Amino acid sequence: MSSEKSFVHEGNLGSRRLRDLGLTILGTPLEVVLQEFQRELSACGVTKVRPHFYLSTEWGVPFDTISIAIPFYLVRVDLTDFHAERGLVEGGGPSDILRYLRHEMGHVVNYAYRLYERPEWTNQFGDINLPYEEEYRPKAFSPQYVDHLPGWYAQKHPDEDWAETFAVWMTPGLNWRERYMRRPALAKLEYCDRVMAELREREPLTTAEDPDEDVASLESTLDEHYRAYALDKMEVPADLEEALLTIFGEPGKEPPTTPRRAAMLIRRLERTISADVYRWTGWFPERARHLLRELSELAEKRNMTYAEARETAVTVALTTFITALAMSRLHDAAT
Ligand SMILES: [Zn+2]
User: How far apart are CA 251 and CA 102, in angstroms?
Assistant: First the structure.
């Protein structure tokens, strides 16, 4: 039985239905991280709301519940690899998972006590009924918001602003009063601190679990699931070849002494660049990834190389190019 099982895993993983993967949190390294998170909650005095954890396709908390959805690919190494191979970049290490949990817990507390109905909450964060824009246009380095998840995530929606504020408030060892001393975002943190002191001994108003999209109920196969993530073909700038020549240098003009293949370098940097560009600009990592794939294919076709000694220089040039493009795309979309 066990050999049959491992054969299936090593074989065509993509054709397996999510619900048939038999995924569970119990007994996995994720369970250990969740225990650590429970200790963090106790340490900051959040003991009356006990979040319910379940596996789904992405992080989230269904509205008006206390259930935290955790991405299924975090419970098994082969699934984490499968996810990463598709270039999707959501952290999988314990510290990244704790970071997401602190954020999601903000939603749980908000819904459990219906904080969003309080006028002071609305004053600080805005109206929870504002439309939820997947494609938000963050203003980089705005002092009005806290920094927690990458991509200036607090700027996405009032509910996210609160969740990010809560996450900063509960982060162990973080002296938020000092860090945000000179930023208007401090008022949001002070509000969070006041309200959490008030709720310390208070029973929650809602304890509904209602998990949405529980992985145990999902009919789609892994391949189908990831196909849904693929972006519509983003238009790629017409002058990509020109950009490549600027970054790597004209081929044959100055033949490198120890030539390295440009395509390989681009592929190697794909994940880091897309994650970091997202962190600082809010441009979706899938977009940068798509662009970097196009660049590496083009570099392969043109047989582009660079001298080993120039590796740092071409890495900086490539990163700057993608960042500039991300900024201009975000700017164009906002106007
Ligand atoms: Zn959120």
Answer: 50
